[in-house]
Amino acid sequence: MPTEELQQDAERYLMATYARQPISIVRGRGSRVYDMEGREYIDFVAGIAVNVLGHAHPDLTLAIQKQAQHLLHASNLYYTEPQVKLAQALVDHSFADKVFFCNSGAEANEAAIKLARRYSFEKYGPGRHDIITMRNSFHGRTLATLTATGQEKVQKGFDPLVPGFSYVAFNDLAEAEKAITAKTAAVMLEPIQAEGGVHVADRTYLKGLRELCRQRDVLLIFDEVQTGMGRTGTLFAYEQFGVEPDIMTLAKGLGGGVPIGACLARAQVAEVFTPGTHASTFGGNPLACAAGLAVLRVLLEGRILDHARRMGDYLAKGLAECKDRHRVVKEVRGLGLLQGMELAIDGQQIVMDCLARGLLINCTMERILRFIPPLIITQREIDRLLDALSQILNKRA
Hints:
By secondary structure, this protein is an alpha/beta fold. It has 15 helices and 17 strands.
């Protein structure tokens, strides 16, 4: 089917919830994807931080093929080996003791919200259910996670929102301390606000927030849906800050492209989830868990995390040098292979200019270019991006 015909059919049959770029991707290999006409693009979006191993990684592909030959789905009324093994691997390499599997980041955050409220209810009784989140955060598109998201623009038109949420400034410990009351069950935040503009949490802020939550017996939830699975150069971003949460959510890179989410928690918190309190029909199905196991093994047994740290430093340095040369660039910030470039102009045209040069990048918050490539991205591919950005920005200085 020609690209133009496919796009016309998409407009006819799909709800218009995405502003799609005018290409149709048909296959990928490594850090490259190809459209219907065979044009090649270097992928600095990675399915929005999903394809951590790139496209068609042989270990991930083989794991999916093998599992599909045996069992795609079985109800959570029964045990399956891939689910138990993936849970064990996540526990073995994190702060957590227990895991709940679901299908997406929004569902993982829904589980975290429910878990925090249930824990507070079991320990303190009714009335202690409020969740504090950060302005400019992003936690999902379900009604509860939309409410948890500290951006009015994504909440508009969906009233009434879920009660019991309030918002404070990111990286402001004093405001967080003031906001915690006798009704507060948890504080929830992203170590790096990715959708909100690539804002990195300050180390002293997170340490202070951890201590504040401990003192007030308030749960600390880290949304690592985008920052987890090696994105920052360690398996989880919290390792970079030396601060452990009580609950953590994962998705995106966990399945390397296969939909899966997870909510991880300490034992004393997790124990309040008993049969009937929460569930997911497809969550933790054998296929998704086999994919998750393959991703974890590649990340932990290979040198990809070391490579991601080096490439993250290289990309950050190159973007900073680009900023020094172009007045239109206001700031560069990020950690590892999650980098943002804030512009003084609208960023969407830069995205389209990069597309014309065979580079896929993303713009968030209208003026912030976001770079979230596969963790296998190479120095040569980063150089291609930096050279193209320099040429494009030269015309807009």
